[in-house]
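Reopening this ticket.

The earlier resolution said the output was attached, but the attachment link was broken on my side. Pasting everything inline this time so it's all in one place.
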Amino acid sequence: MSSNFGLTYEYKPGRTEPHEVFESIGLYIEAYRSYVELISESAGLDVDWCFALEEVKEGSIRSLIQTARKNISSGIERAVLNGGNEIFQEISGKKIKTEKDVEEVAEKMDFHIQKALREQGFSVMGDVFIDRKKLAKSLSDFSKAGKKAKPGEVVKVANDEAYEDEKVINEKWSFDGDADEMFKGEMVSHTAELRLTPVIAVYKGNRAWEFKCFTLNRNLRAVFKDVEWLSDYQKGKVPFSPGDVMSATVDYQVEVSRSNKPKGDIHDAKIIKVHGIKRSNSAQFGW
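Inline output:
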């Protein structure tokens, strides 16, 4: 863990319903976890985040926000957290209710995150793009957490390790829309030859496998319609292990948002025909 940033809930000592303080900080932690994961994903960064209880004292509860892997630099942490936290100042005092409202927030986030990454010396392949539907859900979660706070209670995120630059993230804004109904996409069908390596194989029956797809640069789940190849594999006639690469024709659907931005969610994938396997030791079967 390369650096320490903090999420602090400042409550009123002696307040009624004290259990709501812990419920609220729990909801804020989960909301903020999803939020920073969304930001990392938007910039193409493979970062795992974790939270650790640092301090409970009269009037406040503080949790550390850290990356879960030591090989992530503090610069990336700082860029993601600072870039994301900027938006809370911009939406202060606003009511977010419509897709247009969320789109405006997302566009500002795209800008702030890209700027923060550049300031830390990181270049991003392509533009940062926040998933609008996930952002709506994240803002909704923050808003729900805030409803358990009493007037005058605030939630702050520290932008530095000394807690000298803290930003209030629950200040006079609310999400009043229906996140589940926002940015519903349409399914677009594709048939393509994909390069796949197994993550989770199925040795009996025809449940969905999980693959890493090199062609699409993402993971997907797919069932085999090429039952002849599947039968040979499950009988041990065809070797196929992690690290091996399968070439196969696959039918699948991709969810596309109304703004024509691909959301990346792949559905109903079916392996129609296996063309061959390139073994990790360079041996080939039917390639």
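Reporter confirms the inline version is readable. The longest helix spans residues 19-42. The mean pLDDT is 82.
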